[in-house]
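Design job #97: recover the sequence.
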């Protein structure tokens, strides 16, 4: 079973896009004994312990950043105007608790402004035409000077939701923030630990990518550095089980790992998808298949790198991603780790060649 403390520390870490340092530190803490390095934009590379440098390379990708905010300007009355880092809908913001990290690294508690009922009564509720420009982060200051001098806030300071992880032992449910995509980060670490000591036909590198929410920027770099032959990508994917009937839902809690045929950013390699399903069936790992109408992942970048890289996207159903509070089932995290682990263990030259379509003329 996945390490709950690892998921707790990863999801609690402060890490809006472009400010992923804390997440990297948690990754470092839980990967003792591995060769772990980073680059200037906080991408982190984790090499398997007996990495040979001579075998085909499988890259495990997950992004480290979460959707957050950045202070855009400071109003005369001390409220902080902000922009979002990544795609957060305006209706998910009012009255949320946030943390702003100031230039000294101090975390300042804030609340996103909202209008209490006393000021709405008798007038038309204005949530329908709300805009980000009207909202602000309130840190409790009463003037611009106080916000800057007492709270140490400056234009450009990052912020994210102030939410702590909790685990319901009885139902094996996790709640917290940033499940998209700290769950994926946990899956890389768990998969690489599960593969330890196995004689593999491939070399495995974990690549933790920054700034995915701003357009897959970290993975643009990691895929060029690693130059993988194949990649497996983990994502905290948006659960849809409350919006569709059981038969139509494709990302339901407790229904296992999600394998993705396509989204706006890529179309999956059909042979890789077939192999994943075969592994699921063989080892009794629950999986669900999806064809996304929207969305996009690092697969959009990785799959187009170099000589074309088949990417398998494994999703962990997560309710309410890109908002402050998420739910996921631990068994779905485990299903993703098992799927990746068994697939890599069973990878041999002929499977690799099949996925790479070397048999196309045969
Ligand atoms: Zn994501």
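Job complete. Output follows.
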């Amino acid at each position: 079973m996945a390490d709950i403390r690892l998921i707790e520390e990863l999801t609690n870490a402060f890490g809006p896009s472009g400010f992923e340092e804390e997440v990297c530190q948690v990754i470092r803490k839980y990967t003792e004994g591995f060769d772990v390095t980073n680059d200037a934009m906080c991408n982190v590379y984790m090499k398997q312990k007996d990495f040979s440098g001579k075998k085909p390379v499988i890259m495990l990708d997950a992004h480290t950043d979460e959707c957050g905010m950045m202070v855009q300007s400071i109003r005369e009355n001390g409220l902080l105007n902000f922009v979002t880092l990544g795609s957060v809908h305006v209706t998910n913001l009012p009255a949320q608790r946030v943390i702003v990290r100031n230039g000294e690294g101090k975390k300042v508690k804030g609340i996103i402004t909202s209008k209490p009922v006393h000021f709405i009564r008798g007038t038309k509720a204005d949530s329908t035409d709300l805009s980000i420009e009207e909202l602000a982060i309130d840190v409790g200051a009463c003037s611009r000077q106080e916000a800057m001098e007492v709270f140490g806030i400056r234009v450009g300071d990052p912020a994210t939701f102030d939410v702590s992880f909790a685990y319901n032992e009885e139902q094996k449910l996790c709640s917290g923030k940033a499940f998209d995509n700290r769950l994926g980060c946990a899956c890389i670490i768990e998969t690489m630990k599960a593969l330890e000591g196995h004689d593999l036909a491939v070399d495995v590198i974990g690549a933790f990518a920054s700034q995915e929410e701003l357009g897959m920027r970290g993975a643009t770099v990691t895929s060029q550095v690693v130059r993988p032959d194949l990649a497996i990508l983990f994502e905290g994917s948006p659960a849809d089980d409350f919006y569709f009937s059981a038969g139509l839902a494709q990302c339901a809690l407790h229904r296992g790992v999600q394998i993705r045929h396509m989204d706006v950013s890529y179309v999956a390699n059909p042979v890789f998808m077939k192999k994943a399903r075969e592994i699921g069936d063989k080892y009794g790992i629950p999986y669900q298949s999806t064809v996304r109408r929207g969305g996009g992942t690092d697969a959009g970048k990785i799959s187009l790198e170099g000589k074309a890289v088949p990417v398998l996207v494994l999703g962990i159903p997560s309710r309410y991603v890109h908002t402050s509070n998420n739910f996921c089932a631990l068994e779905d995290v485990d299903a993703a780790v098992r799927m990746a682990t068994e697939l890599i263990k069973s990878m041999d030259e002929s499977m690799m060649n099949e996925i790479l379509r070397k048999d196309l003329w045969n």
